[in-house]
Amino acid sequence: MMEETPTKVVSLLGVALTTMALLFTVSATNASFTGPERTVPDTFGPDNVVAVIDNAAATYSYFLQDNLFTPAQQSYALASDNISWLASNAQDGLVAALGIPQPSTEVAQVPFQGRVAGAHTVRMVQQDPNQS
Predict the structure, then answer these.
(1) pLDDT tens, residue by residue, 30-78
(2) Looking at per-residue confidence, does 130 or 56 come out higher?
(3) Global pTM?
(4) What SS3 string covers the chain?
(5) Dihedral, CA atoms, 39, 45, 51, 53, nearest 10 degrees?
């Protein structure tokens, strides 16, 4: 018991702080054996603990949104835009390098053929007999 070890020091310090907290609570509430005159707020009650957990979770969620998800979305959008621009501009060179024949871009003029229901019907307009 004569040697100081970290375990002994920490345990004695914990006992001393717990005793001081108990004595402070007794003196702050003016407690006696019949009961306290004033009540101490229950800081570790279920309502208070759940509120602290909710606030911590919301704060962490906002932190992740601001520092991880939003910058990642912006980086992805920039990279996607750059890659699509490169792909659209490199298409002709890649086709030529691979020796693939390019399709013709001419549009054949085909006469209109009605492919929609009612394309060949004629709409009859009825005249009102009161109008002449």
Answers:
(1) 888 888 888 877 777 878 888 888 889 999 999 999 999 999 999 999 9
(2) 56
(3) 0.37
(4) CCCCCHHHHHHHHHHHHHHHHHHHHHHHHCCECCECCCCCCCCCCHHHHHHHHHHHHHHHHHHHHHHHHHHHHHHHHHHHHHHHHHHHHHHHHHHHHHCCCCCCCCCCCCCCCCCCCCCCCCCCCCCCCCCC
(5) 140
